[in-house]
Amino acid sequence: MTIEAFILVFISVFMHAAWNFMSKKDSPTPAFFFLAAAAGAVFWIAGACFSQVDIAALPAKFWWLFLISNVFEVLYFTSLAYGYRHGDISLVYPLGRSLPVLLIAIVTTAFGIGKTPTVMALTGMGVIFAGCIIMPLNKWSDFSIKSYCSKVLFWVIMIGIGTTGYTIFDSMATRILEDVPGRSSLFKAIFYIFIVEAGIAISLVPVLFSKKERYELRTICKTWSPYIAGIFSASAYVLILLAMKFVTNVSYIQAFRQMSLPLGILAGIFILKEKCSMPKLVGIILVVSGLVMTSF
Hints:
Number of strands: 0
Shape: globular
Largest sheet: none
Structural class: mainly alpha
């Protein structure tokens, strides 16, 4: 992993932890994420227009990859909303982000997408996964299959599948975008995040047919949180898209995005007053240790 990729991911994780915290704190609903996605699209629309991407030159494969990614994006945000509704951020956040660390490495290796990660990197990803798994425990004696078998588990699995899917397909789509006429890589990333956010907002429109979600929309549209969360989310992903061109396998990106986990956990503990425990602290140490191993 190059220093350029590390810096880009490092900056993005602060934004990622911040918008997850805001979504959990205020209103973890599909209506919230609809507004957030719309805000992200509006924020980057000028940059997308200025990107001068030759849309006519984009092959059909690019649009198929984008559409498949959009399905996974909607799955991710919908699952995140219901996951946060039923569980603490210190439970949903680490578990939801632990699965893609291994899933992306497995999928990309199995299908030959990018260069196979080194043994040290794969070991580091395993250590990160272990840290994420034990973070939600209140005490060591809680470690059992039963501890994880709850209503939240289903949404955590869906979050993991959604993250794995959109990360892989976005990686392939942006590599195609790099070869299309347009301005710099930065503006191409901005163009891509614009269509991603617009696609998410459009895809989430059907959830507003629900009376409950329309009520949520009327309530939260008067606050700043969904708009700030949307801008932070989109901006953080612009940095991730840029970082993708500096790695040989997208699984490295997903592993280093786990730097946001300690931030999310600490925010839940100190700001939302969620319970702290020794397993959480050990989990944070394992995640950091795994990141160090993955960097070599």
